[in-house]
Amino acid sequence: MAATFSSISLFRRPWLVMFLTLALILHLSMASDSTSCNGSEREALLGLKASFFPPNETIEGVEDLDSWKGLNCCDWEGVECHNTTYHVVGLNLSSLRSNANLQSENFDANLLTPLEQLQYLVLSNNKLGGELPVEEISSLKHLYWLDLSKNSFEGKIPEEIDQLLSLRHLNLSNNQLQGRLPESLGNISSLQFLSLSTNQLQGTIPLSFANLSLLKDLDLEDNQLEGTIPPIFDKLRYLEHLNLSRNDFSGNFSFSMLANHPNLTIVNLSHNNKLVILQTNDTPAFQLVELDLSYSDMSKYDLSVPGFLSNQKTLSKLLLAYSNLSGSIPPWVLGASHNWLYLHGNMFTGQLVLPPTPTDLLKLDLSNNRLSGELPKEYHSFFPHLSEINVSGNVLTGNVASYLHAFQGLDMLDLSVNKISGNLPLELSLNLLFLDLTNNQVTGNLPASITYGNRLRALWLSNNHLTGPLLSENFNLLQLESLRLDGNSFSGTIPKNLFLRIPSLKVLNIRNNNFSGSIPVELEELSNLQVLILRENRFEDGLPVMCMVKRLTILDLSRNNLRESIPPCFQNISSWVQNSGPSLESLNSTRIGTETSYREVVSFTKGNNYDYFGLTLSLMTGIDLSQNQLQGHIPTELGLLKGLIVLNISNNHLTGSIPASFDQLRRIEVLDLSNNKLEGRIPPQLVLLYSLSTFSVANNNLSGVVPNGFQFSTFSESSYHGNPGLCGFMGKPCSTTLPPSEVNEDEEEDSIWEKDNLVLYAVIAMGFIVGFWGVLAFFFLNMKWRTLCFETMDRSISSLSLRGKSRGYSSFSSSGVTSYSVLGK
C-alpha cells in the first residue's frame, strides 16, 4: 500500500520525477567515465602521438589520429582496452607516417613504459630509426606481439633480446639491422613467428634456434647469412613456413632434415647459389603447397628418379628456375604443380613432353633451356586451364600456326627466340593479352586475325621476315599498349587513321623496316604515348609536330630522310622539361593476368645502342634525330628540356651556333652535335653540365677555345676533330696568333675589362677620400673626442717606449710624431 502511495505521490510531483531522472543520467555519466582508460595511460598515448606528429607542425600525407580526443582512450583508433580493467592492452599504429614527407627519427620507447598491461604493439612502416629499444620495451612484461617492421632501425640485435620472454610474434623485417644473429634469440622459447628478413644480418644461424620448439614461421630472407644450414630444424616440429632465400648459404642440404614436420607447407631456399640440394628419396610427413629452389644448385638432383618431389601431391607452386638441372623433363614434373611450374634457365634438352594425365596447371615457364622439336598437337588438351606459357629462348621448330591454334585460350603466349617459321594464320580466334613472336622466322603479311581483338595489350613481332603494308582495318585494338614490329620488311605508308584504332598505345617501335612517306600528324592523338621509335626507315618530309604528346619520354627518328627544321615546341612535352626522371611505371612491366609481369625493353642510343628495361627505362629520356636531312638553326628552346638525358642531332645540315641555353641541360649525359654546319664558339657555360659523359661537335665549322674543366677535361680529341678553328684541347694548344674574329672578340673583352677596372679604381679612390677626410672632420668638430683620442695615443706611445727600451730599441717624440731606430749592439 505504501509502495503504491509512493508511486502516486511521485506522479503528483513532476519536478521530483525530473530531478530523479537527471540524477540517474549523472550517475550513468559518472559510471561511464569510470570505465574510461587509466589517466596515466591516456597521457602516455598523447605523448606518443606528439612524438609522431609534432603539434606545431602541419605535415601533408599523415594520418593525424583525429579520433584521439576525449577522456575515454579505449574508443580511440588503434587502441584496444581490456573488457573489465580498461587498461590499454593493444596498440596498432601501423603506417601512420608512411606517406608523409618525413625523415626517419629515433624512437623514444620510454613513452610506452606507462602502458604496463600492453600485450601487442604494432609500429610498422612509420620511418622510425635508431637502435632497437629492447631495454625499454622489456618493461612491458605482458607483451606477446611486437611488430617494428618496415622502419629504419639499425645496429645489432641486442643480446638482451631474450628479456622479452613472453613474445610469441616478433617481426623486425625491412630495417637496417646488422651484425650476427644473437644466440640469446633462442632463449625466447615462446616464439611462434620470427621474421628478420630484408636486413643486413651476417654470420650463421645460431644453434640455439633449436630451442624454439614452438616456432611455426621462420623468415630470414634477404640478408647476408652464410655457412651451412645447421641440423636444428628437426627439433622444430611445429614449423609451417621456412624462408631462407636470398642469402649466401653453402654446403649440402637434404629435405630429410625436415622429414618429420607434418605441418610444413611452404619452403623457400631460393637465391643461395652455393647451396647444393641433395637427392632425397624418403617419403616425408609433410605435403608442401609452395616450394622454391630457384637459383640454388640442383646439379646432383636427378628428377627422373622418383623420390621426395614426386611424392608432393598438393603443390600449388613449384619453382626450380636457374638451378643447374639438365637432361630431359620427366613427364611427372609437368603434373607436379596445380598452379605455377617454373623450370626456366636450366639445361633441359629434348622435346616438349606431355604429363601422364591432364593437369590443372595455370602458368608454365620453360624458357631459356635447350628444348627442341615441335609442339605436340594435343599439348593444349593436357593443360585445359593453362593461362600463360613461356617457351622462349629454346630451339623449337614447327609452324607458327600450330602453336597459335594450340593455345587459343591463353592470356599470355611467349614463343620468342626460337626457330618457328611459316605464315601467320589468316583465320584465328585469339583471346590473348600478350603475344611475343620476336626473333623467329615468321613470314608473310600481318593478317587481321592477329590484330583483331580488344583484349590484346602487347603485340611483339620483332625480328622476323614479315612484309607488306600496315592496314588500318586490321587493327581494332582499343587496349593495346605496346606494339613492336621492328626488324621486319614492312613497307608502304602508315595509314592516317591507324592511330585512331590504338588509342591506348604507350610504346610504338617500328624501327628497321621499309616504311616511307610522311609521319602522320595523327600521332598527336596518342595522348598516352611514351616511347616512339621510327629509326631506320624511309620517312621523309618534315618532323611531325608532336608537341601535344606530353608524356613522350623517348623519341628516336634517326636514320630517315626527314627535312626542314627542328620544331621549337618540344618544351611543351612535360616529361622532358621536368628536372627529374619521368614516371614510366606502366612501362616497367606489361601486366598480364593477376600475377605475371613482362618487362618492356627499349633499345636506344647512349653513345652506343643499349637495351633499357625496368628501373633504367623508367629513368630514361632522350631525343635522337641523327642522320636525317634537317636544316636551320638549333632552337634555343631545346635548352629548356632540363629532364633530357640524351640529345643526338648529329649528321644533319644544321647551321648557326650552339645555343648558350644548353647550359640548362643539367641531366644530359649524351650530347652529339657532330657532322653539321655549326659555327661560332662552344659556349663556355657548357662546363656546368656535370653529368655529361659523351660529347661530340666533330666535323663542323666551330672556332675559338674549347671550354676546359670538369667533364670537358675528359673528352678526347675525336670530340672536336674536323673543326680547324678550334684549339685548347688535347693535342692542339692555342697559338698566340688568333684568327681575326677571335682577336676582335678578345680585344672587345679586354676593352670591357679595362672600362670596368677604371670604374673600380674610381670607386676605391672616392671611398678613401671620403673616409679619410670624414674622420678628420669629425675630430676637428668634436673637442671631447679629439682630447680623448690624443690621450689614448700618448698612453700607447709611452707603453711602446718602455717596451722598446727593454728590447734594445730607442724612441723619441717631437711634436706628436714618434719614430723608432734600432740600437747597435
UniProtKB/TrEMBL annotation:
Membrane topology: Single-pass type I membrane protein
Signal sequence annotation: 1-31
Residues covered by region (Disordered): 804-825
Domain (Leucine-rich repeat-containing N-terminal plant-type): residue spans on this chain: 40-81
Skewed-composition ranges (Low complexity): 807-825
Subcellular location: Cell membrane
InterPro entries per UniProt: Leu-rich_rpt (IPR001611), Leu-rich_rpt_typical-subtyp (IPR003591), LRR_dom_sf (IPR032675), LRR_N_plant-typ (IPR013210)
Broad class of where this protein is predominantly found: membrane
Chain ranges passing through the membrane: 758-781
Listed GO CC annotations: plasma membrane
Keywords: Cell membrane, Glycoprotein, Leucine-rich repeat, Membrane, Receptor, Repeat, Signal, Transmembrane, Transmembrane helix
Keyword Signal attributed: yes
Family label: Belongs to the RLP family.
PANTHER family assigned to the protein according to its UniProt record, in alphabetical order: LEUCINE-RICH REPEAT-CONTAINING N-TERMINAL PLANT-TYPE DOMAIN-CONTAINING PROTEIN, UNNAMED PRODUCT
Protein name, per record: Leucine-rich repeat-containing N-terminal plant-type domain-containing protein
